[in-house]
Specification:
- 15% of the residues are buried.
- The protein has one domain (4-86): SH3 type barrels (Roll), CATH 2.30.30.
- By secondary structure, the protein is mostly beta strands.
- It has helices spanning 4-9, 90-97; strands at residues 15-20, 23-33, 41-48, 51-58, 64-71.
- The model has no long low-confidence stretch (mean pLDDT 91).
- It has two helices and five strands.
Length: 99
């Protein structure tokens, strides 16, 4: 389970590291859906071996041990879904988010 303080910080553009039962996955949060409902999720995207990988995590999943907040974007993110980051390079993402 994710504690309440961390749950409030999980927003689009935030860099997170998700510790799950099988290991860990770090990347940028692209979307957060359905608030705090039972089916609420957040999507994390990372690049592994030059291939984009996305994982969708249910917020109330028992498989998630801990979520670490690595960085919060310096600029205000103007959208709630950052799907356009899929087409950008790493440098483009840094410029857009001010990281």
């Amino acid at each position: 389970m994710i504690d309440e303080k961390t749950l409030e910080q999980i927003k689009p553009g935030t860099r997170v590291k998700v510790h799950e039962k099988g290991g860990q996955f770090s990347g940028i949060v692209l979307a957060r859906k359905h608030g705090k409902q039972a089916g609420a999720t957040f999507t994390v995207r990372s690049k592994l071996s030059d291939v984009g990988v996305e994982k969708v995590y249910p917020i109330y999943s028992p498989n998630i041990k801990k979520v670490e907040i690595l960085a919060i974007p310096k600029k205000k993110v103007g959208r709630s879904k950052l799907y356009y980051l899929r087409k950008l390079s790493d440098k483009g993402i840094r410029q857009k988010l001010g990281a």
